[in-house]
Specification:
Blueprint: H1 2-14, H2 23-51, H3 55-59, H4 72-80, H5 83-114, H6 120-129, H7 139-153, H8 161-185, H9 189-197, H10 202-213, H11 215-230, H12 234-239, H13 247-250, H14 262-282, H15 284-296
Helix pairs in contact: 2-14, 4-14, 5-8, 5-11, 8-11, 9-10, 11-15
């Protein structure tokens, strides 16, 4: 009897669930994902392989496999251009812009989320409307403002790190405020109201109750502000000089009138990408939670 029932049980175990996806869909998904992965990883492979080639191999006909492997470009990138100085400038500018943007956005978003005041709707609409305009529209006005401030007060904003930090705040701060408003709205008001009943002031309730609950949203805003400032080219190419130049502009120094050091360009691009990649991997879980919390709640 058991020999007769065993094939029946095996057949039942092999039977597919009525809700399972058909095999054609599974194979189509695998093929599409494989093509997308190849499309994304192909430029990375070209960068890595080109950074390990001598200049004559990169300047000639493209080869998928390097004929000679060398790590010399990773040493030459620090001598061809002052990459270390550009790296420090980018860290100072991007880090300062991120700290200021997140700090101001936390206070502003908390006030909009928790309090009623005259002009609240106008403020939120104005913050959102700034994202509708391309950054190039603000380039000439900011340039004229900085130059006039320097001529009238002696405060050199044009060509300084401080001027570039203020410039980055003009487009990172509105987005940070708008995003944190939605995240603070998703946090129950009972938390900070209970803190106020226990004797906490508004600022203490913000930092001891609301901010710890809003860590994913704050991390997401911080990553966005840092990445935006780290890779920005338009404003950095106009608002900086030789002493305050950032990495995004400094990479152009590998192109001279006679030649372009493509292997060093690829090596420098990989080195420049390391802080962003490492930071994203370390903060990935907070970033995903911060970006999706508003949609879920």
């Amino acid at each position: 009897m058991s020999s007769l029932t065993r094939p029946t049980r095996t057949a039942r175990s092999r039977a597919r669930s009525p809700m399972a996806a058909p095999q054609s869909f599974l194979w189509t998904r695998r093929i599409i994902l494989t093509l997308l992965a190849g499309f994304v990883l192909l430029p990375v492979y070209v960068m890595v392989s080109s950074s390990l080639k001598p200049l004559q191999d990169v300047s000639g006909k493209f080869q998928w496999l390097p004929s000679t492997l060398t790590i010399q470009p990773y040493f030459d990138i620090w001598e061809t251009v002052p990459l270390a100085k550009y790296f420090v400038n980018s860290l100072i500018v991007a880090g300062s812009a991120t700290v200021l943007s997140v700090t101001i956005a936390v206070f502003s978003a908390y006030a909009v989320s928790r309090y009623r005041f005259r002009g609240k709707r106008v403020f939120t609409v104005t913050v959102l409307s700034t994202q509708m305009f391309p950054g190039i529209l603000f380039l000439l006005p900011l340039f004229l403002i900085f130059v006039n401030i320097g001529n009238s007060t002696g405060v050199a904003l044009y060509g300084s790190r401080g001027g570039l930090i203020l410039t980055y705040l003009t487009f990172s701060l509105p987005f940070s405020i708008w995003m944190l408003i939605g995240y603070f709205d998703s946090i129950p008001r009972d938390l900070d109201e209970a803190a106020l009943v226990d004797g906490c002031g508004p600022v203490r309730a913000l930092f001891q109750v609301v901010v710890p609950a809003a860590v994913p949203g704050i991390v997401a805003v911080s990553v966005y502000s840092f990445m935006t400032a780290w890779g920005e080219v338009l404003f950095a190419s106009v608002m900086t000089n030789d002493a305050t130049r950032t990495l995004s502009v400094g990479l152009q120094g590998y192109a001279t009138q006679n030649d372009v050091y493509w292997n060093q360009v690829m090596a420098a691009s990989l080195v420049v990408s390391v802080p962003i990649v490492v930071g994203f991997l370390l903060l990935q879980r907070y970033l995903v939670a911060g970006l999706t919390a508003g949609a879920v709640k």
